[in-house]
Write a structure and sequence with these properties.
mainly alpha; elongated
């Protein structure tokens, strides 16, 4: 119960700030919120994988003379594989995002324009 109260107390400001944060009004704000959630989730997964690897390395060192080292070594290996997969997928997503990024602004000099016909006389010459 004490842990629950401690976690609730720690997270209370974020719940309060969630009420005043930007509301979802269109697709852009929705995507921005989803990207923020994805970035936070990625950071948490990377942090968990690094902590998992360090924890198991310490366990591996502590059991220096024991025969129980093989499962701990496998846990270290799978932690490294998991970290590699997380970072690889994150990198691939960033490569694809940067490759296919479009801009919202259009250079108006590249758009063909129709000339203003009010300045052209009947003979086809400009005034």
């Amino acid at each position: 119960m004490k842990k629950f109260i401690a976690v609730l107390t720690t997270l209370a400001p974020s719940f309060a700030l969630a009420q005043t944060a930007g509301q979802i009004t269109d697709a852009d704000t929705l995507v921005a919120k989803l990207v923020g959630i994805g970035n936070t989730l990625t950071q948490l997964l990377v942090a968990f994988a690094v902590i998992w690897i360090i924890y198991n390395v310490v366990r591996y060192i502590v059991k220096a003379d024991s025969d129980d080292r093989k499962p701990i070594g496998n846990a270290i290996l799978w932690g490294i594989v998991g970290l590699f997969v997380i970072l690889s997928i994150w990198g691939l997503v960033n490569i694809l995002r940067n490759t296919f990024t479009t801009t919202d602004s259009i250079d108006k000099t590249e758009i063909p324009q129709i000339p203003d016909l009010s300045t052209v006389d009947n003979a086809g010459t400009s005034n």
